User: Fold this.
Amino acid sequence: MITYLEAIREAQAKALADDPRVYIYGQDVGQFGGAFKATKNLAQEFPGRVLDAPISEDAIIGSAIGAAIEGMRPIIEMQFADFSTVGFNQIVNHAATMNWRTQLPCPITIRLPSGGTAGGGPFHSQSMEALYAHYPGLIVMTPATVEDAYSMLLEAVAIDDPVIFCEHKYLYYHLKAESLPTEAMPTGKARVARAGRDATIVTYSAMVHESLAAAEELAGEGWEIEVIDLRSIKPLDTDTVLASVARTGRLLAVGEAFPWGGVTAEILARVASEGYDLLDAPPRRLNAKDTPVPYHPNLWGTHRPTARTISAEMRELLRR
Amino acid sequence: MITYLEAIREAQAKALADDPRVYIYGQDVGQFGGAFKATKNLAQEFPGRVLDAPISEDAIIGSAIGAAIEGMRPIIEMQFADFSTVGFNQIVNHAATMNWRTQLPCPITIRLPSGGTAGGGPFHSQSMEALYAHYPGLIVMTPATVEDAYSMLLEAVAIDDPVIFCEHKYLYYHLKAESLPTEAMPTGKARVARAGRDATIVTYSAMVHESLAAAEELAGEGWEIEVIDLRSIKPLDTDTVLASVARTGRLLAVGEAFPWGGVTAEILARVASEGYDLLDAPPRRLNAKDTPVPYHPNLWGTHRPTARTISAEMRELLRR
Amino acid sequence: MVLQTAEAPCSCMEASENSQSFLKAYRWMLLARLVEEKIASLYRGGKIFGGVFVSKGQEALSVAIGSSLRKGDIFAPLIRDQAGRLAFGEPLLDCLRTYLGSRLGPMRGRDGNVHRGRPKEGMLPMISHLGAMIPAVAGCLMARRFRGIEGTVGATCIGDGGTSTGAFHEAMNLAAVERLPLVMVVANNQYAYSTPNSRQFVCRDLVDKAAGYGIEGHSVDATDLGACLKTLGQAVDRARAGHGPQLVIGSLLRLAGHGEHDDAHYVDPALKESALGRDCLKVAEQHILSSKWAAESTLLDWNEEAQKQIDDAVALTIREPLPDPNQEDWCALATRHLSEG
Amino acid sequence: MVLQTAEAPCSCMEASENSQSFLKAYRWMLLARLVEEKIASLYRGGKIFGGVFVSKGQEALSVAIGSSLRKGDIFAPLIRDQAGRLAFGEPLLDCLRTYLGSRLGPMRGRDGNVHRGRPKEGMLPMISHLGAMIPAVAGCLMARRFRGIEGTVGATCIGDGGTSTGAFHEAMNLAAVERLPLVMVVANNQYAYSTPNSRQFVCRDLVDKAAGYGIEGHSVDATDLGACLKTLGQAVDRARAGHGPQLVIGSLLRLAGHGEHDDAHYVDPALKESALGRDCLKVAEQHILSSKWAAESTLLDWNEEAQKQIDDAVALTIREPLPDPNQEDWCALATRHLSEG
Ligand SMILES: Cc1ncc(C[n+]2csc(CCOP(=O)(O)OP(=O)(O)O)c2C)c(N)n1
Ligand SMILES: Cc1ncc(C[n+]2csc(CCOP(=O)(O)OP(=O)(O)O)c2C)c(N)n1
Ligand SMILES: [Mg+2]
Ligand SMILES: [Mg+2]
Assistant:
């Protein structure tokens, strides 16, 4: 059995082994193997190619941009997604604009340990994917499975553009697979994680699993809920979403991020404008609450959507 | 006649005069009166209360937070909205979380000279409102008129929460009013900028004027287009939007920001979920293109929505 | 019952001013050490969510800044400032309540562990982003100046790693330009998480940064409580007297993992055996005994008193209500009517 | 026709190495001065969109870094580096095409004025955010090291104001830790836009920051071309020889507004009359004449040649196609099939 976290380690090991242009840079990623052990033993296995960085997110990302200009393919680990606010300027204004301004691609991969865990609190729990998706020039991946964590990270490194790789901390240890994939769906294609015909849940990352649990619960009540795992939110596979809504006539978009804007707004906007006639009922969204992410599990469990609140929301949708 | 820019200056003069807790801090805001002259003569009129800052956006915002904790009401000028990426962490993680974490409000006003002008280029043209609206704990104002620029800025200073005040650079000189208002609509209420019955345009900031011009053009073709000026995008006045869509049955959301996510997505998502039955046709959105904001006016004029592209989009909507 | 942080926990044999403040500081250090040991054991018992970060080895430096400040000053402690917090006046209960998520704590379960404070009382609650508190303290001091309040000092703490942040630089420079009475205490504990100083900076000494900001710098052996009290006392005095920001570098070794989840296997054994590796609490204890400022039995009594105080506080906290999502006010704004919640 | 930047524009009377490089540098300075005067006049004629930023007074410092580098090095010029750009090898046409928005320029109308470069050729195109280019140059140098390429130097420029950015600090420290061959050139021109140094920093001298990063520092009178060539030459040599990052502070006065829209009325008259206020181009001219390295008539010829070159370039550029939104490829990604456009 291999975990989501190990898959991320394995993908990096393979990227380092296959491509001499790849190196890893981030706080404590070297000898120590990273705060979450996502780079465990890599410094030992690939001497000189996995480097500890100072606590300087702006310079870390800026240096990756320069290295990419000079032909490298850096993988950057932010210790937590939340700290990428400090490297934000380099990401959205420098990396993201490089290719459009100069026709020289900027192939960097920025790994963001994302999302909430019990006890994480306001500054170690954020889901920042929508911020990065808003800016032109970035690709934003949000893998929900062990297989995708592996194959999408490999693809991220291979892609010529800057990729924001949102790996979910809650899935690190919770998610296990038999083995690593040898083939994979390409980025930009969503996956039908569970087929259904009564309604569609469109979601991504950790919320795929809450949604699948909700669908399972609702199956006990006789409902067949389709669950779409977006896999990447930019590009966002509108076609697969619309095809599902065409089958079910009902849409619930679920995300773990803050409610204003974000992925769920983008999904509803696309379906409303491009698939209006497919809908049999008003589409719905479910997000986290509009406060910082709380520390205490009692609050955190209510702040973010869960299988329970998703099925409740879905029941409302099915009632219409 | 008073310009949008002068209104901003006047509001700051009044805030300084009325409330000893107010001070202004930002690059070149002192003796020089600011890059756009929004603080012209204020350092002279209010000695010691309008201070030049070093080129340190993170520290500028951080210091405002501390000052607010100690009872002041700082007004911070970013030289351009685009540079707020450097102060991003302090805004979204420190200012925005203060009240929720500690029950001590953080009354700071951050003025962001926003939006595109001919020749501005990728780093002096951005519309960052959606980024800030995504984060809990912030209020985001986007005044489109001279009157609102004045009264909303005064309100921003009075409000106990951090306010992101997106003032549009294109409107600085282009927009004039007879006089400053003595009464004002409160923040959180949208305004019907033009009444109509065939379709609704929901928009804000500079795009209000492009939309009004489009409505005027379409009036020549016999259409009565309603234009809603959101005024603030967080809070976003869903009720006024829904009431308008109830009247017209058709919705076009227009924004100058990048297309993924943003204000237009949030509008469509809200109307689709809360006002689905009010719609007679699929709602539409019009945003800037998904590239950085181009420098040359030839490109810039096509990158952002204009009266011409808004009316074209509206004709499509009216055809359905 | 719970010791009031306002009162000095001192009942010493000699009455010299130095020994008085030394002993007082020592008792805060002891209380800090013991409460963190308690929290670590609660963590191992699965009673605490999220991380636990202890300050073992850093108590002397931390207590020295906390006790050099006075009421009305501003203090923004960081991760390893349990001792300084207590000395500055943070109730012991705040610590336990925050770690245990009590609804009655200052953070009410919304934030945890070291992310606590009482901004109304001049103690800022840290956000995690390193360096972010420094400009906030600078801003507090600007506010005092605007308001015509004189004589305030503001202090904040950071680690060797935190000096690499842009936030540190911008804030130090801003404070220097404004000539603010800011005391910046750097605990150079040789590691930032697992990263040794050699991968963090290469200046001869972190105090060399002071000249680059045009401010005064101080270095201190942070395993030596007496030295810390003296140096921090001077720095605070100089800040208060109008000499602008003060940079204080305390050298020591982190004697625990980065957090309780970390066994710190990577720490260089040579460092542990060096003078930096001394335990400041033990060193202080030795000093007290050899100076005959207190008898061994007195130290044991103090230990017991502190332990009792902690046990009482834990017993109290553990019975307190936890946050309840249904009673929770899910509103981030102070201006309630503008909330979209 | 347009002078090829690869060739040295030198035909001097004496042949000493010093005079050769001085005269060569002088001619780049002259070309820079004249092309910026031309652009400023185009601006006043309404022919240029957005801002115009000239480097009057800074040509000596800028040309010194540009000409101390060699092919294969990395250079990230900033706002006021017209002379350095030319000396490093940027075609004159790049400047005009970018200012005038020609579709044939390196930025193709997508970006303007000073935001231009040729990253494939080692010249990075600045983004506006001050400080942001420094870590990028550091990263280029890391890449060269990873790739086993030896002997590269990377240089970048910033102003007094830019030293206050967190980006500057983080990148200088990172470069120091990695011991990268980075030359950081600071043009201390006394103002950041309207803000005088007294509101920007209070260290005795900006070179005092070097010790705080553990790197070598140099100061130079940037009104003196000879001194600049010598100091920058040394800094580049030391970086290339493996002595790690070099911080060079050049002192001078900005002899124009921040941009052409700014009349710089706020500049202290005392500064203008001080030694800092000397015009480096005039000083260099005097030096050439008094050293008898060239006759006055030769200088006039050079002036005419440069003017001709500029006029030709303008005449060419002005006839070039402008960006056409309908032909524009509105796609930000290199990976076209992943574009949502
Ligand atoms: C901007 C930022 N980046 C990364 C982190 C993650 N982080 C938390 S503590 C830490 C190490 C801090 O080291 P140091 O400053 O030396 O303090 P110490 O833990 O040694 O007391 C890191 C990297 C953070 N909190 N903030
Ligand atoms: C991070 C950031 N903040 C603000 C600005 C706006 N800005 C552009 S140039 C400038 C002044 C720069 O001064 P200095 O660094 O001394 O360079 P100089 O113009 O004197 O050459 C400012 C504030 C910016 N470009 N980047
Ligand atoms: Mg440390
Ligand atoms: Mg300057």
